[in-house]
């Protein structure tokens, strides 16, 4: 498509945004709403990792897997499930949601808000200056009167082990854009990407072996990973905890890959996927021209201004600031920072006190996350261990989710668990964790309670509808008050 590459003849804008994923789009939108001129630079597809290789395609692929599993947990519906998933239709559904990796619609959206889209690699060239190099070698120089916002995301990191290049491993990208189901798939890594991909590919017909050095979902409450491991095992996956891959072999590019494990054993698979960490896309952004280290995570203040750069002009949003590698949290930062950029440009005072309009307070206190496994796992705020390390005086309340009659109606033999961590001094929630079927739609109520610091005395007046899974709130609050 034809982007408006020369609509500003001198290349001067109020704001230049590096990265046109959801985070970059949100900061651009809020800066435009403040009346500022905006240039958006993108080197790949407009819409970014989330739209084409992460959140959107993975959930599009996972939904049919979990929908069938949900049906099989309900008498009457179970008997109607008579065959396997139609993988061709599952992949076609994914393709629709990623618009066949065509970013025309999202590029048009950027244009519709009045921002100019520049395709190419953007590189900072000193304070408030960005040089964009297109694939054909053409270069455009952009200058920013008020702000440059880095929203370039992150990339998967492959471990430095013998045979890694020969093995040609998958990362999250091939895990979501592949349309071929391997007979045997080894997945290395027990974090969110690893457990979702294990759920997905086991459901599509692969024999999945999931290898994790520690527990699954190690940053969540321990019971979350235990439930996920049990669910994957019941689905037919081989889950191995406390195992490390030390080497790989794939002498025949068309043949299987052999994984050597630190317990002395070996594992053969048709493909191997690594989900073992990410690094920021900051290695070739010209950070050295403003006194920063290329390839580093960027340290920011509460308005997402990068620390160590003079002049209050460089912002870092989303994955690159390493606060929470979650699309929704990056979009929250982008909205907040976009408003702060507008206020600074207009000479208005900043409301950057905790929970203010220009403060990303939720990054420290109320980060929600959901993993679309079977069962699902979701949490917001602090875990019991994190609260204890912070020196908070707490009471931890645990309940089986089947205490809510709505859960049992949702699935015969419902399996799930709920935990809330209460600050005893203030009687507010510090954190909540759910694991169970369909709990992703339950988590926002917990997020509101934690972010809003709703007193438990008031929270008891939030009446849950009968019979829903959310009735678990009534039982959690009753358990807290029970001496």
TrEMBL record:
Q: Which residues form the FAD/NAD(P)-binding domain?
A: 13-328
Any one of the GO BP annotations:
2-oxoglutarate metabolic process
Cofactor(s) the record lists? FAD
Amino acids binding FAD: 59, 122, 152-154, 319
Disulfide-bonded cysteine pairs: these are 50-55
What's one Pfam family the UniProt record gives for this protein? Answer: Pyr_redox_dim
**In which residues is NAD(+) bound?**
189-196, 277
Instruction: Cite the GO molecular-function annotations of the record.
Output: dihydrolipoyl dehydrogenase (NADH) activity; flavin adenine dinucleotide binding
Q: Does the keyword Magnesium apply?
A: no
SUPFAM superfamilies attached here? FAD/NAD(P)-binding domain, FAD/NAD-linked reductases, dimerisation (C-terminal) domain
Q: Which UniProt keywords apply?
A: FAD, Flavoprotein, NAD, Nucleotide-binding
Pyridine nucleotide-disulphide oxidoreductase dimerisation domain mapped to chain residues: 367-472
Q: How is the cofactor bound?
A: Binds 1 FAD per subunit.
Q: Spell out the family assignment given in the record's similarity comment.
A: Belongs to the class-I pyridine nucleotide-disulfide oxidoreductase family.
Could you identify this protein by its name? FAD-dependent pyridine nucleotide-disulfide oxidoreductase
- Species in which this protein is naturally found: Streptomyces scopuliridis RB72
């Amino acid at each position: 498509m034809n982007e408006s590459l020369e609509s500003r003849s001198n290349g001067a804008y109020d704001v230049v945004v590096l990265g046109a994923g959801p985070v970059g789009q949100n900061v651009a939108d809020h800066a435009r709403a403040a009346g500022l001129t905006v240039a958006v630079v993108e080197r790949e597809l407009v819409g970014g990792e989330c739209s084409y290789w992460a959140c959107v395609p993975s959930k599009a692929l996972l939904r049919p897997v979990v929908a069938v599993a949900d049906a099989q947990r309900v008498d009457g519906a179970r008997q109607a499930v008579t065959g396997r998933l139609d993988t061709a239709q599952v992949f076609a559904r994914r393709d629709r949601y990623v618009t066949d990796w065509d970013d025309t619609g999202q590029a048009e959206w950027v244009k519709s808000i009045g921002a100019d889209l520049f395709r190419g690699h953007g590189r900072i060239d000193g304070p408030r200056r960005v040089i964009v190099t297109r694939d054909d070698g053409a270069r455009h120089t952009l200058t920013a009167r008020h702000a440059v916002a880095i929203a370039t995301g992150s990339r998967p990191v492959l471990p430095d082990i013998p045979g890694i290049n020969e093995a040609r491993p998958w990362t999250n990208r091939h895990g979501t854009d592949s349309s071929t189901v391997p007979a045997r798939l080894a997945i290395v890594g027990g974090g969110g990407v690893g457990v979702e991909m294990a759920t997905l590919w086991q459901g599509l017909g692969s024999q999945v072996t999931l290898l994790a050095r520690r527990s699954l979902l190690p940053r969540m409450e321990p019971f979350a990973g235990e439930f996920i491991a049990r669910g994957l095992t019941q689905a037919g996956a081989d889950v191995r905890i406390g195992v490390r891959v030390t080497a790989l072999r794939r002498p025949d590019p068309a043949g299987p890959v052999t994984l050597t494990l630190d317990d002395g054993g070996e594992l053969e698979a048709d493909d191997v996927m690594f989900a073992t960490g990410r690094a920021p896309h900051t290695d070739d952004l010209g950070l050295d021209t403003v006194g920063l280290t290329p390839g580093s995570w960027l340290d920011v203040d509460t308005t997402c201004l990068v620390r160590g750069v003079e002049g209050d002009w460089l912002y870092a949003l989303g994955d690159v600031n390493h606060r929470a590698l979650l699309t929704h949290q990056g979009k929250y930062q982008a909205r907040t920072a976009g408003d702060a950029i507008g206020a600074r440009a207009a000479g208005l005072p900043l409301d950057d006190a905790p929970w203010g309009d220009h403060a990303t307070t939720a990054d420290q206190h109320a980060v929600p996350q959901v993993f679309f496994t079977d069962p699902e796992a979701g949490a917001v705020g602090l875990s019991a261990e994190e609260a204890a390390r912070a020196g908070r005086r707490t009471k931890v309340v645990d309940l089986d989710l089947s205490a809510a009659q709505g859960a049992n109606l949702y699935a015969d033999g419902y399996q799930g668990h709920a935990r809330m961590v209460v600050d005893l001094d203030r009687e507010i929630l510090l954190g909540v964790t759910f694991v169970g079927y369909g709990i992703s739609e339950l988590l926002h109520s917990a997020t509101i309670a934690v972010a809003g610091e709703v007193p438990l005395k008031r929270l008891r007046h939030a009446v849950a509808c009968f019979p829903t899974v959310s009735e678990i709130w009534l039982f959690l609050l009753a358990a807290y008050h029970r001496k």
